[in-house]
Amino acid sequence: MTKLSQRALEIGAKVEAFVRETVVPYEQDPRRDHHGAPTDELVDEMKMKARAAGVLTPHILPDGSHLTQLETAHVLQKSGLSPLGPLACNTTAPDEGNMYLLGHVGSPELKERFLRPLVEGNARSAFFMTEPDGGAGSDPAMMKTTCRMDGNHWVINGRKTFITGADGAKVGIIMAKADEGACMFLVDLPDPAIRIDHVPNTIDNSMPGGHATLTIDNLRVPADQMLGEAGEGFKYAQIRLSPARLSHCMRWLGCCVRANEIATDYANRREAFGKVLIDHEGVGFMLAENMIDLKQAELMIDWCASVLDTGSLGTVESSMTKVAVSEALMRIADRCVQVMGGLGVTDTTIVERVFREIRAFRIYDGPTEVHKWSLAKKIKRDWKATQI
Prior knowledge:
4-stranded antiparallel sheet; 3-stranded mixed sheet; 3 domains; 11 helices; about 400 residues; Butyryl-CoA Dehydrogenase, subunit A, domain 3; Butyryl-Coa Dehydrogenase, subunit A, domain 1; Butyryl-CoA Dehydrogenase, subunit A, domain 2; alpha+beta
């Protein structure tokens, strides 16, 4: 196992102290929107404190360079020790993935205009890919949103759905298809040509802005706001895909570490049938299984991060890690609820909230079944290659 750098250890320690001491008390803060998500007012207040503590956007260094993926794994796990931690530290989705993409492929002009406000924590962003009505989702090739040139502008039309954080975002990355293939655009938000039709109530509610369905009606985007060239959209999506998928695993691992701490404390204090719960085999074994799953999840994340640090896209490795980690964390969250009994299904602690968030995590960034299907296709391809 690659040894963590001293800078990652130091940044991680600062982030952990900030989350445990400053962010955790906000978990009972009543400032929530009607979907149950933290309000932007609450998030901005926490960001202000993170900025003062020197832990805002801790995975991006003052010179604009990015921590390695292995270092990022350590730091983002620490930010995830509270469901509010990634929001406070500016390491949350979709902003973290969007910052990574723009940092790697954006022109200097686009970085200054769109990336800087994100890194500084002064703006939220949204990534517009998934579509309703048989459009792009787990299969991005089904994209229906179109773009066409009109003078020195592109005109975009279509509908998008489950667009996390769109309501209230200031920066948008929109995917659409032209005759040349998929394209990716940067836009300022809000824009009158982008209409939010619906923001549903969902099982998860940790992300401001919810998961909107919206209509894009003749949106005009200057040609210099396209990332790369027409037809290169999927190539850039691949650059974002694996690191963003992996960072979800990092943050939610942190949440499950904390949930397990809470369940462990409860099991060592609560008595039933003449002894504390942990001395009952059924409870003690669940916590032992949590210990195993937590370590396996950590090792899978570090393995995949190490692969990405070689410069590989890590598509296969990130699929394997997304499946292994999301399923392990679901088991952990479920056991934490079970260990705590009735208390585990209340909002007295974050355990119930973590359970809901992890359930959603098993779906976004590719459901388990899609990743397994993709891996099975690779197994078949590899087998065929040996038969020639």
